[in-house]
Request: fold
Amino acid sequence: MRYFVSLMVVVAAAALGPPATTQEPVAAAADGPNVVLIVLDDMRADELVAMPHTTEQIRDKGATFKHAYSPFPLCCPARATILTGQYAHNHKVLSNHWPRGGFRKFDDSSTIATWLDSRGYISGYVGKYLNQYESRRSERYVPPGWTSWAALADGVYQYVDFALNQNGRRVAYKDRYQTAVVGEQSRAFIRRQSGAGPFVLVTMFIAPHAGAPGEADDPVFKSPAVARKYRNAYQGQQLPTDASYNEADVSDKPRAIRDLPPIPPRQMSAHQEVYQQRLESIRSVDDQVDQIVDTLAATGELSSTYIVVTSDNGYLLGEHRIRNGKTLGYEPSARVPLLMRGPGIPSGAVVEQLVGLHDLAPTVLQATGTYGAQTHPLDGRSLLPLIGDDDVAAKRDLVLEAGPRDTTTTRLQYRGVRTNTGWKYIEHDTGEKEMYDLDRDPYELENLAGDPAFATRRRVLDGRLDELKDCAGPECSKAG
Reply:
């Protein structure tokens, strides 16, 4: 039986446009499953509420990973991690922009595309690529290993009026909603390749990332543009607020947080509007996921396809007084949704172990039977053995990292560890430290790093961070 794995889906919305490319299917030497990976941009773990089709088609018919993290919660480093199976301290993409990161910093000669290409797989990429890819060169450049390429080359954060590099040719889409076009291109790839051999498809939407055009009800914070179909669809849906929202006492936090004033009512209202627009933009992606599943079914590929839905990072909306943003190691920023269905995955499975975006590349390799094709050490591990077995590799901890803050230093903004025993420990470049018992304090309200009663625990976590912060390959998954 041949399988299909779905690698990535990125956010977009509705409308029709130029006809899809008519590239002929290419016969593959490999004989295995397909993979479709669907990746959204800046989606919080709690925003799955806006994806009823995805909940029914992927979560309910597959596995939910309850504790999934973006090890470096920022767009470009996270995407590089997905494509390579490496932590950022190994792939060296440490920013969205050159010289610390961005498209030019990324070594695209060793990715899931090149590895699977060497084993006869057909590979397709649709949607957002790495930051700063959008340039004159990107209108023609196709990275190695990709059989079919339809990446955003202009107007990446414009939900309407943008251009794709379609196999080296710039194609403009005027008056089209980007989410719908990305979904359209993904489905066209599936139809072309159906029956021609196994394939891997990575689809990256920009939703719910902020983007143009602006709308009359936009708040002071940046928000996504919403398809007409879903405007005000989530009006009245309340932003989930726990005790970390506009945190009352930040005296135990690093100085950058302590200096933040309480959020005034006007900005609270803005958070509410941004949240509703984010859900509305995600709902358009949900439609595309549903249609991708329908296309897989119509082409006879669904039963032999793994489908993964996740996000590059989460997003902060008022937690710990942070107006908006990501990159920081707090849970709303670092945690991501992660769902997976496919051959052999039981319906409704729930995985408790810690997992991260660096595990996606190894998962694809194992699912497709091509493990060993990789040309650099993998920091992650396959997710497949974890499904249905709570005892497998239960002791692995995860690295959290971000930075540098600017181009004048190579020092990371912070390095941290999230342990399988429920602790999070972070060392900032300022020398400040944070330590939270997430089982007892899930909203990270009480920083225990300076509490003498937890001095022993801090020493243990400090040692564990020293062991992992520069890890590479299998040593990243060694038990503590």
